[in-house]
């Protein structure tokens, strides 16, 4: 097989499966693992993929900082936030993950809602200054990129909370590779929260679908549903219909 053919296959598989495992691909093609690894190194040097131990992931553009992300697709995020807020019922205990999209859930919740809001994000907690809802703020080491608490103290506090609904934030959502994010500790915190929740929902902006970040949180089939924008093609959404419920905003 020619080098150009291997590269085309690698690119297609990354787009379809969200990862390349060098040994598995070498065995499948009847080639040496060194050959595949060389292809991955060269493609990474050209900015076509991201090399990781044992293989490769799709190249994800660097995320803008928290302040910059607040201005990205704000109308779409508001629409998703309003639809997600409809899922919250009086009397529930709700955990809101950090992030600019989940901030729109907080803004959409009625000010007179009688509920308990749990969050490890000081920016999310601040959104409830004038709400009737009780707010529990989880502390720990502040991960400034997402403005959320991480670390052992946060995990210990989360273990003592039971929630009805968790709105989880992810940087990437792939039907095979699942939900993922860019920070190892943040991924662990998200798993811990989901483990305490009866239902877990994810607000999915279009650029996150079909992508994979380095640190896996959980499978798409492990969440109760994805809140997706109206107007997306059936081709884009069909792989997710087999995994979980889709809630259209």
Q: How would you briefly describe this protein structure?
A:
InterPro entries: Carb_Metab_HTH_regulators, DeoR-like_C, DeoR_HTH, NagB/RpiA_transferase-like, Tscrpt_reg_HTH_DeoR_CS, WH-like_DNA-bd_sf, WH_DNA-bd_sf. This protein has 249 residues and is α/β, with parallel strands linked by helices. It has 10 helices and 15 strands.
Quick tags:
single chain; 249 residues; alpha/beta; Arc Repressor Mutant, subunit A; Rossmann fold; 2 domains; three-stranded antiparallel sheet; 10 helices; 23% strand; DNA-binding; DNA binding; DNA-binding transcription factor activity; Tscrpt_reg_HTH_DeoR_CS; DeoR/GlpR transcriptional regulator
Protein topology:
Layout: H1 3-17, E1 20-21, H2 22-29, H3 33-45, E2 50-52, E3 55-57, H4 66-69, H5 74-85, E4 93-96, H6 100-108, E5 116-119, H7 122-126, E6 134-137, E7 141-143, E8 148-150, H8 152-158, E9 163-168, E10 172-174, E11 178-181, H9 184-194, E12 197-203, E13 215-218, E14 225-228, H10 234-241, E15 245-248
Explain the overall architecture:
The protein has helices at residues 3-17, 22-29, 33-45, 66-69, 74-85, 100-108, 122-126, 152-158, 184-194, 234-241; strands spanning 20-21, 50-52, 55-57, 93-96, 116-119, 134-137, 141-143, 148-150, 163-168, 172-174, 178-181, 197-203, 215-218, 225-228, 245-248. With 249 residues, it is α/β, with parallel strands linked by helices. It folds into two domains: 3-57, Winged helix-like DNA-binding domain superfamily/Winged helix DNA-binding domain (Arc Repressor Mutant, subunit A, Orthogonal Bundle); 66-248, Rossmann fold, CATH 3.40.50.1360. A hairpin with a 2-residue loop joins strand 2 and strand 3.
